[in-house]
Amino acid sequence: MTLKIAIASHIVLDSIEDMEGRTVESLGGPVCYSGLTAKKMRFDVMVATKVGRDFPMAAEQDLGQKGIIIKEHMHASAFNTTRFYIRQEKEGRRLSLKTKCAPLLKEEIEGIHTDCWMVSPVLDEVPTDVLEAIVKDRGARNFVMLDPQGYTRSVNQAGCISVIENVDLNSLLDLSGITAIKADTAEIAALTSGLYGIEAMKFLHHEKSVPLVICTEPFSIHLLHSDIHYWLDLQEFSKADSTGLGDILSAAFCCTYVKENDPLWAICFGAGAVKAALETRKEGLNKIPSESEIEIDASYYYNSIEYEKI
Asked: Helix (H, G, I), strand (E, B), or coil: what is residue 294?
């Protein structure tokens, strides 16, 4: 029986400028990066998303042929599709918002029958009541993975996107019922009132009762589970397109955990998917690796992962 994953997030139209000044247009967002990674791992993919009146028919048909179906009610006729301008820089990425689509509604995720959920807003398109409804449903395998990037972002008048300093987890974002969370160092600091590294992960694991906490750094990936800290070092790939790597990692981790119920294999598959994607040297969605490529790199990491009891 084929397992199912549901993804709540906006599809994005990305303009990606590399460090040499070249710009490419690409479909983006977790629905695309995570969804297509999950398809490579032989999951059925369902989406809770919105696109606008400007969304290209060719793009919709292409996604449909790859198993990601945008249903009629997901077209927000009064809005344009969410658009980002992404500039690759030596120290990371710089994001700007061009247009923003309508948020998701609670009734739009009801009736989605799945084994697990991934919630990964790019901005504010997954309101907290929608997140609560997803956590209440949870899926047949009782698994909800959260990438909180959208809850930690703010947009200034010029459209520049930055990470806010503090997210109120008591009133603005409730992590109750979340199985796994994946955040980078800036996002995890925003969620923990300025904590970093293992202390931030311990706060989410113990104080907020999140069983699986993943923190990503530029060249390493960390997992905290049952008071064991695992970590993997990543090879640096100069001038490689990093767009969507977090979504690729999340999907590979989620799919592996739901299939195997093994956090160690899951984080190795997550890291393996990132390494395999970077090794393609391709841009946008073209860098999503095959399952066999992911598995080769996951096996390498499984034999080299480090860990410590905390």
From this structure: helix
Planar angle of CA 74, 75, 78, nearest 5 degrees: 130
Residues in the chain: 310
- pLDDT at residue 211, as a whole number: 98
Q: How far is CA 305 from CA 74, 80, 255, in A?
A: 41, 44, 20
Q: 304 is written with which tokens?
A: 């080299």
Q: What is the dihedral angle through the alpha carbons of 27, 28, 30, 34, rounded to the nearest 10 degrees?
A: 60
Tokens standing for residue 176: 């109750």
- The per-residue pLDDT for 93 is 78
pLDDT in the model for residue 239: 67
Given this model, what pLDDT does residue 26 score?
A: 87
CA angle 276, 121, 267 (to 5 degrees): 35
Q: Are strands 51-52 and 75-76 parallel, antiparallel or unpaired?
A: parallel
> What dihedral angle (degrees, nearest 10) is formed by the CA atoms of 67, 71, 74, 78?
120
Q: Both tokens of residue 158?
A: 């010029």
- pLDDT tens digit sequence for 176-187: 999 999 999 999
Shortest CA distance to 250 belongs to which of 32, 70, 62?
32
CATH assignment of 4-309?
3.40.1190.20
Helix (H, G, I), strand (E, B) or coil at 209: coil
Count CB atoms within 10 A of the CB of residue 268: 29
**Where do we find the tokens 């689509």?**
101
Q: Pull the structure tokens for residue 69.
A: 């179906």
Q: Please give the angle made by the CA atoms of 260, 178 and 96, to the nearest 5 degrees.
A: 105
92 phi-psi bin (left φ>0, alpha ψ -120 to 50, beta other): left
Low-confidence ranges of the chain (pLDDT < 70): 91, 238-239
